[in-house]
Amino acid sequence: AAQFSEYLMNDYEDMYRKLYQWSQHPNRDVKQAGYAALESFLKQIADMLVTRQESGDNKADIAVFKFFICEFRSIIDTTEAGTREMSIAVRGYGFFAAPCKMFLSE
Questions:
Q1: Are 105 and 65 in contact (CB under 8 A)?
Q2: Three-state helix/strand/coil letters over the chain
Q3: Which of 6, 43, 69, 81 could form a disulfide with 85 if both were Cys (CB 3.0 to 4.6 A apart)?
Q4: Euclidean distance between CA atoms 20 and 22, whole angstroms
Q5: pLDDT of 1-52, one tens digit each?
Q6: What pTM was estimated for this model as a whole?
């Protein structure tokens, strides 16, 4: 994922939605691959947010950060979320700990 980090940042919303959809797929193999890809994607986005913030302030990065935090929060707030969905949200917060520290301390 690191080779495509700039492209991931450009299409973060569509990529997240598709990977999330795959992580909820009824086929077990697709679900496992989707979950692993989603984890990798979230790690890469969080790393890119930290790297780009250190090199200069970017308003687009704040929008990316807010999108993911809102997504994680909506998963946690819903009563229909299963363990897999909760896991995605909690792990997402974990991956975004450094960006949270950077963006929320401003």
A1: no
A2: CHHHHHHHHHCHHHHHHHHHHHHCCCCHHHHHHHHHHHHHHHHHHHHHHHHHHHHCCCHHHHHHHHHHHHHHHHHHHCCCCCHHHHHHHHHHHHHCHHHHHHHHCC
A3: 81
A4: 5
A5: 567 777 788 889 999 999 999 999 999 999 999 999 999 999 999 998 888 8
A6: 0.86
